[in-house]
Amino acid sequence: MSAVFNNSETEISQALAPFDVGELLEYRAAIHGIENSNYFIKARKNDRARIYVLTFIRQRPNAGDLYSPMMNALYQHGLPVAPPLQRVSDPSSDKLPVLLQACLSGNHIVNPMQRQIEGLGRFTARMHLCMSQSGLALPAFPRTPKWMRDTIDPWLKGVSYTNRKVLEETINKVDRLLQRGDVISLPRGMIHGDLFRDNVLFNERGLTGVLDFHHASSSYWLFDLAVIANDWCTDSQGRLDPDRTRALLKSYHQIRRLTEQELWFFSSFTLYAALCFWISRLTVNLAAKSEKGVRSKNSEEFKRIVVEHIGHPLYLDPRIFDIC
């Protein structure tokens, strides 16, 4: 966990040089970056100006050296993503810690409409199927119950008694969930792991781009749907809206058929996903109090979602999805 640093114009120019994109015209920092430093770059080559996104990697992607092959596989299957550009001066050195990608068109959505949620559901199903055919074996998703305990333990002194009790009990609940044989057998493969509204772009016609695959790993496909539901389908109190949630799952189901077991455990996975992001944000918030320059997001949002999931799990009737 570290601060997002400011890079000088000289550092940015030096980072761009191996990509041969031409003259740097202007740059500005991206405001959403928490783990890495991101810049919108305008460069001109052969009298043509283009916009790129330059990323200084502070935290290595979960996919490691498979990050570029993964992004290329998604792009070659026609999905709206931006694979990293290769370094022209020395293609063999096309590795982290700097990435340059084309800037995708579109805008972030603050208040998503149902048709936008459905578009994301279809994208997610296509992404899952595409990567299952790619042959790439990504590393396992690191946010396990062990990760939860190891991450929160050093900060427990700064956590209230009530929150500590909820955290401990919910981690134990998720731990028991993930040890069940019928959960272990759920469909799995590559997941994005971070499909929040600030990682998806839309225009008036539909979904135009998906960003930030730095959390992509191998895990249960259900986890991606749980992340989406928590961010796109909850109300101001943190409770899942049944209509939006069913719209998400039905649109996904049109591309990759959900199993009855996935519907059984969907509510439990929304709790699992919410707990992961509560812990992640909470520890960053606590660090921000003692480490200058640490950027953070509101952890209370996910505390509310966790509490709502515990008290009001959403029931999904498989008959709605024509599974039974």
What kind of sheet is the major sheet? Answer: 4 strands, antiparallel
CATH 2nd-level architecture of the largest domain: Alpha-Beta Complex
Number of helices: 10
Please tell me how large the radius of gyration is. 20 Å
Number of strands: 8
Mean pLDDT equals 91
Descriptive report:
The chain is α+β, with helices and mostly antiparallel strands and about 325 residues long. It has two domains: about 10-100, Phosphorylase Kinase, domain 1, CATH 3.30.200; about 115-320, Aminoglycoside phosphotransferase (APH), C-terminal lobe (Aminoglycoside 3'-phosphotransferase, Chain: A, domain 2). About 45% of the residues lie in helices and about 15% in strands. Strands 1-2-3-4 form a four-stranded antiparallel beta sheet, covered by helices on one side. A two-stranded antiparallel sheet has the order 5-8. Strand 2 and strand 3 (about 50-55) form a beta hairpin. Helix 3 (about 115-135) runs parallel beside helix 8 (about 240-255) and helix 7 crosses helix 9. The longest helix is centred in the last third of the chain and has 31 residues, at about 260-290. It is globular.
